[in-house]
C-alpha cells in the first residue's frame, strides 16, 4: 500500500506557477524576446537555468555566461518580489484537509520541488512543518524529468520509491515521477498531462481514497 505521497509545489499546492510565468514574461519583454503562456507551459517544472536556456533557444538568442547569470538573478528578483505578497491564504483550497487525512491514514508527506525558493514558499504558506521531508533542489544532480528529486525525497522519508506516489502539474514532473518508479497523479487535464496515471482538475478535488486506488489501478 501507499506509504508516502510526494508533492510538487509550484502549481500543485499554490499558484506560484503563475508568478514564475509573470517573472519570465517581464524578463523576456525587457530583452525583446518572444514569449507567451504557451512558451511558458514548456518551462513548468524545469529548473531556473534550464528555463532560461529554453527561452533563449526559442528567441534564437545567445548570451555570454556573465549575462546569463545576471538574467537568472534578475528573474529570481522579479519572482521573489511577487512572493512578498504571499501568506497562508495563498495555499490552494483543500491542501490542509488532504494533509490531515494523509496523516490520519499513516501516510507520510514529502515535497519534491525543483525550486530553490521552495523552503521560503512553504514557510510563507504556513505549511513548512507539515512535511516529513523536503528534498533540496540545490543538492540534486539532475533535474526533472530525471527522477533524482523524487528518489531523494522517498529516501529522506525512509521509504522505498515503489511505496510512494507523486503529484505534479507539469509534464517534466510526471516523467520524473515515472522514472522514479512511482505512480503519477496529474493536476490538470488528460490533454495537458497525457502520461499521468490519474487526473484531477485541482488538488482540492483529490481524496486519500483516490490516491490509494490510483496505486491499485496502476498496478493492475
Ligand atoms: C519549479 C517551477 C519552475 C521553476 C523551477 C525553479 O519547477 O515549476 O517554473 O523554474 O521550480 O524555481 P526557482 O525558484 O529555483 O527559480
Ligand atoms: Mg509544478
From TrEMBL:
UniProt-annotated binding residues for Mg(2+): 8, 10, 168-169
Binding site for substrate: 8-10, 24, 43-48, 51, 75, 113-117, 144
Residues annotated as site: Important for catalytic activity and assists the phosphoryl transfer reaction to Asp8 by balancing charge and orienting the reacting groups: 113, 144
TM region positions: none
Active-site feature positions: 8 (nucleophile), 10 (proton donor/acceptor)
Family named by the database record: Belongs to the HAD-like hydrolase superfamily. CbbY/CbbZ/Gph/YieH family.
Protein name: Alpha,alpha-trehalose phosphorylase
Range covered out of full length: 767 to 986 of 995
Amino acid at each position: 500500500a501507499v506509504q508516502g505521497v510526494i508533492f510538487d509545489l509550484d502549481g500543485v499546492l499554490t499558484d506560484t506557477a503563475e508568478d514564475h510565468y509573470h517573472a519570465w514574461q517581464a524578463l523576456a519583454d525587457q530583452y525583446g524576446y518572444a514569449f507567451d503562456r504557451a512558451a511558458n507551459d514548456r518551462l513548468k517544472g524545469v529548473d531556473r537555468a534550464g528555463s532560461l536556456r529554453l527561452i533563449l533557444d526559442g528567441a534564437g538568442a545567445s548570451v555570454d555566461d556573465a549575462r546569463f547569470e545576471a538574467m537568472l538573478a534578475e528573474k529570481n528578483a522579479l519572482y521573489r518580489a511577487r512572493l512578498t505578497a504571499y501568506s497562508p491564504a495563498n495555499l490552494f483550497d483543500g491542501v490542509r484537509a488532504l494533509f490531515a487525512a494523509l496523516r490520519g491514514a499513516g501516510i507520510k508527506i514529502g515535497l519534491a520541488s525543483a525550486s530553490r525558493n521552495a523552503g521560503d514558499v512553504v514557510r510563507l504558506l504556513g505549511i513548512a512543518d507539515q512535511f516529513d521531508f523536503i528534498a533540496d533542489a540545490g543538492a540534486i544532480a539532475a533535474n526533472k524529468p530525471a527522477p533524482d528529486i523524487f528518489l531523494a525525497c522517498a529516501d529522506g522519508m525512509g521509504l522505498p520509491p515503489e511505496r510512494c506516489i507523486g503529484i505534479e502539474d507539469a509534464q517534466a514532473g510526471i516523467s520524473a515521477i515515472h522514472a522514479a518508479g512511482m505512480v503519477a497523479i496529474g493536476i490538470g487535464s488528460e490533454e495537458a498531462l497525457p502520461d499521468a496515471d490519474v487526473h484531477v482538475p485541482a488538488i482540492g478535488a483529490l481524496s486519500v481514497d483516490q490516491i490509494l486506488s490510483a496505486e491499485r489501478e496502476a498496478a493492475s
